[in-house]
Amino acid sequence: MISETKKRRTSARSRSTNLLLLALLPLAVFTGLVANTAGTRWGIHPSVFHGIAAFAVLILSPWKQVIVRRGLGRRRKTSWISITLLVLVISTLTTGIMHAFGYQGRIGPLTLMQVHVGGALIALVLAYFHYRSHPVRFTRPVDANRRSFLKAAGVSVGAALTWIGLEGTLDALGASGGERRFTGSHERGSFDPRGFPVTSWLDDRVQTIDADDWVLGIGGSTMSLADIDALPHEEFAAVLDCTSAWYTSQLWTGVRLDRLIDPGSDRAIVVRSQTGYSRRFPVSDIESLWLVTHVGGEPLSAGHGFPARIVAPGRRGFWWVKWVTEIDTSPVPWWIQLPFPAT
C-alpha cells in the first residue's frame, strides 16, 4: 500500500513537472522572439518575462533530471530525443546567462546569440516530438490540485526572485551586464562611426558599391547619390539595437522619407537592398524613417550600408535596411510579411 501511494505521488510530481515545462518552454521561446523584435520601451519589456521563464525552467531542472534518468532506464527508442533536448536546454540557458554577464565572444563560428536563439528554436521543435512520444494531457484531477498550484506558484515566484537577484548582483558588482539596455543588448562603440560592429542579416554579405554607379529607385523615378546629397540633410541621434544583442548610439545624417516620397493612399513603404533584402513599413512611420548617408559626420562605410541605408528609430536592427536601392509604396499592409526576414 505504501509502495502504491509512493508511486502515485511520484507520478503526480512527474506530471506536474512535465506540464509546467510544456508551458514554460514555448513561453520562453515566444517571449525571447518578441524581445528580439521590440525596439521601444514598454511598461514591462518582454525581455523581463523571457528571463523569468528561463529561470523557471532552470528551477524545474532537478525534477526533470530525475524523470529523464528514470526514463533512460527503460531504454526507449526515443531516448535520444530526451537527451538532445536536455543538452539544448542546458546550452540555451547557459548562453543566456553568459550574455547577461557580458560575454560577447564566439562559440566556434557562431556568435553567442546565434547559439542561444538557434538552440532554443531547435529545442522547441524537439519538445514537440518529445511530448508526442510521451503524451502528457491535462485531464487528471491531480493536475489541478492544491499541490500542483503551489508548485507552479513557487516556481514562478522563485524564478522572478532569481531574475531580480541576478540583475541586482550585476548592478552591485558593476559588471558589464548591469549596463544592458532594456532589450538586453550591450553597448558597442557609441558615437564612434568606426567602432560599432558590422553585421548583416543571415546570408547577406557586405556590398561594395561604386558611388558613381549607384542609383536609387524611388516612387517610379530615380535619384543619384549627387541628387540625394543636394537635398537638405539633418543630423540626429538614434540608437541602433541589433538582434545580435548589442546596441550603439550614433549621430546620423540624412533625409526624412516623407521628403522623398508621397505614399498617397497606399498603406506601406517598401524598402529594398541591393542584396534583395527588403522590409515593409507602415505609412504612419514615414515621418520617423530616414535615408542616411553619413554617420558621425563621415560617409557610411561599406559594412554600415554605403552609400545609403535606412535608420528606423525605435525598431530593431533588422529593419535598418542597408545598401538601399529602391524605396516605393504599396497598397498591401505592412504586416503582411514575416516577423523576421527569411534570408
Structure description:
The chain is of the alpha+beta class. The protein has 2 domains: 2-184, no CATH class; 187-330, Sulfite Oxidase, Chain A, domain 2 (Alpha-Beta Complex). The chain contains 6 helices and 13 strands. It has helices at 2-37, 46-72, 79-100, 112-133, 146-173, 225-230, and strands at 106-107, 110-111, 186-187, 215-218, 221-224, 234-242, 246-256, 268-273, 278-282, 290-295, 298-299, 309-311, 324-330. Strands 3, 6, 7, 10, 11 and 12 form a 6-stranded mixed beta sheet that branches. Strands 5-4-13-8-9 form a 5-stranded mixed beta sheet. A two-stranded antiparallel sheet has the order 1-2. A hairpin with a 4-residue loop joins β8 and β9. The longest helix is centred in the N-terminal third of the chain and has 36 residues, at 2-37. It is elongated, with a radius of gyration of 24 Å. The N and C termini lie far apart (60 Å).
Layout of helices and strands, plus pairs?
Elements: H1 2-37, H2 46-72, H3 79-100, E1 106-107, E2 110-111, H4 112-133, H5 146-173, E3 186-187, E4 215-218, E5 221-224, H6 225-230, E6 234-242, E7 246-256, E8 268-273, E9 278-282, E10 290-295, E11 298-299, E12 309-311, E13 324-330
